Amino acid sequence: MFVYPHKLILKTCGTTTLLAAIPRLLEIVSQYCNCRKIWRVFYSRKSFMFPERQLHPHKDWKDEVAYLDQHFAAYTVGKVNDDHCHNNRNNHKYHDDDQTIEILMTELSPATIRKFYRKPVDEDSGGKGGTRIDRETGLINLYPSALLDSYLFEPCGYSSNGLLKDNYFNIHVTPEVDCSYASFETNIFENHEKIPNLINQVINIFEPRKFTVTVFNTNTPNTDKKLLISSISNFWGYVRKDKILYEFDGYDLIFGHFEREKNVKI
């Protein structure tokens, strides 16, 4: 959970019921912050690997939309029968410069999976194991000057929260072979021409067979949509299966889905 004077970012995983926190959060900001009106709300998630394991209201996107229908317009981004993302939003026209980059990766390479299991050298310290993984995988090099809090779970799994001045990045890894998954998200601003470098750094660390990228960017009169679109066009060793530009009121969202080329082995 990242808390700012004017916004709150809450990320969860597994079978947690994120939307169920909304009513209580609204009570808290009303009582303690004298906030009676929410400026904008964003809710998004990747299509579930195991939707049958989710709890209400997360069993179905229609249920999630109904839960927050009074605030949100709903979108399905990407192919319905393939990897895709769901997005809800409630937004007013006024906005600050904003950018969020999210990389969702599945079917990680065997070599990658092994790195996210507890080792004897980690002893009983999840924090010590997390620090080891930061160093051995190169995750610490994504933002070398950031404040990083990483944790290695027992017997496997990894989570990390990073802060760089007023911005954040977040990493979560589930390394089990039958459902290996890694996510990376940041609102640390990147010029469009530098976004491919960041994506390459991340996918080179995790070596996924498939990955999805979304770049959510403030739409201003000076926005160059061609640069935004080209920022997720091509990555060595992968074939782009989907690329879509969505234009919202004040924002652009570019979505891309990639799969490893059949003749490229990791």
UniProtKB/TrEMBL annotation:
Keywords, ordered alphabetically: Polyamine biosynthesis, Spermidine biosynthesis
Keyword Transmembrane annotated: no
GO biological process, one term: spermine biosynthetic process
Species of provenance: Diversispora eburnea
PANTHER family listed in its UniProt record: S-ADENOSYLMETHIONINE DECARBOXYLASE, S-ADENOSYLMETHIONINE DECARBOXYLASE PROENZYME
Gene3D superfamilies the UniProt entry points to: S-adenosylmethionine decarboxylase
InterPro entries: AdoMetDC-like (IPR048283), S-AdoMet_deCO2ase_core (IPR016067)
GO molecular function: adenosylmethionine decarboxylase activity
Protein name: 9980_t:CDS:1
Family stated for the protein in its record: Belongs to the eukaryotic AdoMetDC family.
Pathway in which this enzyme or protein is active: Amine and polyamine biosynthesis; S-adenosylmethioninamine biosynthesis; S-adenosylmethioninamine from S-adenosyl-L-methionine: step 1/1
One GO cellular component, as annotated: cytosol
